[in-house]
């Protein structure tokens, strides 16, 4: 059991942190002896849970974790339903398309497809962000019960950039606007120079369970083009919802 706990501790270091880490850093962050960490990392590499970064001594998360994540039932179905729509959206928008789900007070990206541009977003799959900092988080939060929205807005809101909305009154108005137009937007709020829009995805019962977003650099995804991208996400979200059995 101790070995399992230690292995889990090593994996958790990658959660919302650097995507590539060496043995020394992992050992320091988990307070494990370097030889113990090295042995566990080698075992997880053999099992596909981790992989070596080519040309370095660093590790990153392996594809086996992604395969296992795909079996999680609470978002496995939506990923399967969304995949062809996301691919289509990435081709038509020519920008990065992401499917995200809520996990507590955060949003986690579970699927991503990129357009053809050489300059594109990094791989955001697995990244967690506060709901109020990104377009897909706002799209998820805006359609929650009023009491749940107020619970989150009662806490200090996370700031990532100078553009991140941290005032509860402004965020309340922002979420009302999301409900009015059907999609959310974030302009440099999670990363300077990154613009994005997102629309909510509903399941067969009508509950919002995911969000689909389009994002890209501000010189391509310009402010005046956000409504066009917003409409594309709304259309894509409706197609995914239809595949999940929603008929509203």
Automatic annotation (TrEMBL):
Record's signal peptide: none
MF annotations from Gene Ontology: DNA binding; DNA-binding transcription factor activity
Residue span, HTH iclR-type domain: 1-63
Biological process (GO), any one: negative regulation of DNA-templated transcription
Keywords tagged on the record: DNA-binding, Transcription, Transcription regulation
Ranges where the IclR-ED domain occurs: 64-246
PANTHER family from the UniProt entry: HELIX-TURN-HELIX TRANSCRIPTIONAL REGULATOR, ICLR FAMILY, HTH-TYPE TRANSCRIPTIONAL REGULATOR RV1719
Purpose: May be an activator protein for the gylABX operon.
Protein name (database record): Glycerol operon regulatory protein
Species name: Kouleothrix aurantiaca
């Amino acid at each position: 059991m101790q070995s399992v706990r230690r292995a889990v501790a090593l994996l958790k270091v990658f959660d919302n942190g650097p995507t590539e880490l060496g043995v020394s850093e992992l050992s320091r962050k988990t307070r494990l002896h370097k030889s113990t960490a090295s042995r566990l990392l080698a075992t997880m590499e053999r099992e596909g849970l981790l992989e070596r970064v080519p040309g370095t001594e660093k590790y990153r998360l392996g594809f086996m974790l992604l395969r296992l994540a795909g079996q999680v039932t609470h978002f496995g179905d939506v990923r399967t339903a969304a995949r062809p729509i996301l691919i289509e959206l990435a081709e038509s928008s020519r920008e990065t398309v992401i499917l995200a789900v809520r996990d507590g007070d955060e949003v986690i990206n579970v699927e991503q497809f990129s357009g053809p541009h050489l300059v594109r977003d990094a791989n955001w799959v697995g990244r967690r962000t506060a709901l109020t900092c990104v377009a897909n988080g706002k799209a998820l939060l805006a359609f929650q019960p009023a009491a749940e929205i107020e619970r989150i807005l009662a806490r200090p809101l996370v700031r990532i950039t100078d553009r991140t909305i941290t005032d509860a009154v402004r965020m309340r108005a922002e979420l009302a606007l999301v409900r009015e137009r059907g999609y959310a937007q974030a302009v440099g709020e999670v990363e300077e120079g990154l613009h994005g829009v997102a629309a909510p995805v509903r399941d067969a019962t009508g509950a919002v369970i995911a969000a689909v977003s389009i994002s890209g650099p501000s010189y391509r995804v310009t402010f005046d083009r956000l409504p066009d991208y917003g409409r594309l996400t709304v259309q894509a979200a409706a197609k995914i919802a239809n595949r999940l059995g929603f008929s509203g």
